Amino acid sequence: MKSSKIKLSEIFTSIQGEMAGLGRVCLFIRTYGCNLAEKCSLDCDSRYSWDPKDKKSKILDITFEDLFAIIRKENTKYIVITGGEPMLQEVYVEKIIDEFSATKIFYIETNGTIAPNNQLKHKMNVNFNVSPKTPIWELDETFFKSFPKERTIFKFVLNPGHTKIKKFLDAYDKLEEFQDQIFVMPSSKNRKQYIKNSLSIVKICKKWKLNFCPREHLVLWDGKKGK
After folding, report:
1. How many angstroms separate the CA atoms of 43 and 119, rounded?
2. Using an 8 Å Cβ cutoff, are 159 and 187 in contact?
3. How far apart are CA 184 and CA 180, in angstroms?
4. Mind listing the domains of the chain with CATH numbers?
5. Which of 157, 162, 174, 185 has its CA 20 to 30 A from that of 197?
6. What is the enclosing helix (H) or strand (E) of 194?
7. What is the three-class DSSP state of 166?
8. According to the model, what pLDDT value does residue 3 have?
């Protein structure tokens, strides 16, 4: 291993607001860096985790000794490893998981562009919250099968005024095998946007029998960093 440090953006304890683990008290480990960055098709709500020009951005070069001490002190059963894109530091992510494999349950939040290796994929205490930035109709079964079926949720952001919702629904119909894993959530960066857009997206979910993904952290903290 070339370095004994992992690059983080922040680390804090809070309530998991969306996807698998919803409502659980978790320790959030937000890694620094993203392989999509400016190329991302969405307006990133954690730009500070990869863009040094963002005024909230900072890099924490933390040793594993110090990180493990924080994890033990916080003493949460559940740990969310997010980003940025945590899979850019997959070997370090595995080191965290291996250290606490007997006592912790992990959720890795990823954009899905870097598939987990077989060892990570088959760890029964590791779940994946995958938020593809590529439209669903550009993905195929190979993508969905890159992640463990029973421990993965795929979340797609929908804009209420999206002109390609029909295209989304057509692709969704063809992915019947994965429909229990596929959720949609409204595009939003703050409480006001979330509540307004959720009402529209829920109508679509009810009509077309789609799974809805809430974003409770926006309701509680209005998009504030590290909450």
Report:
1. 33
2. yes
3. 12
4. 5-221 (3.20.20.70)
5. 174
6. helix 191-208
7. helix
8. 52
Q: Could you tell me the two tokens for 83?
A: 């980003």
The tokens describing 14, both together, are 């809070």
- Tokens 């109508």 correspond to what residue? 203
Separation CA 48–CA 56 (nearest Å)? 5
Read off the tokens for 214.
């809430």
The rounded distance, in Å, linking the Cα atoms of 139 and 90 is: 23
In tens, the pLDDT along 94-113 reads: 999 999 999 999 999 999 99
Alpha carbon distance 39, 59 (integer Å): 21
Yes or no: say if 14 and 217 are a contact pair by the CB < 8 Å rule. Answer: yes
**Alpha-carbon distances, residue 90 vs 81, 132, 169, 190, 203 (angstroms):** 11, 18, 33, 30, 38
Tokens 């963002």 correspond to 54
The total number of residues written for the chain in this structure: 227
Q: What local confidence, expressed as pLDDT, does residue 163 receive?
A: 80
pTM comes to 0.93
Pull the structure tokens for residue 152: 């993965």
Q: What residues pair up with 13 in beta bridges, in sequence order?
A: 27
Q: At what angle do helices 165-174 and 191-208 cross, to 10 degrees?
A: 50
Q: Is the peptide bond before 23 cis (omega within 30 degrees of 0)?
A: no
pLDDT at 38 over 60: yes
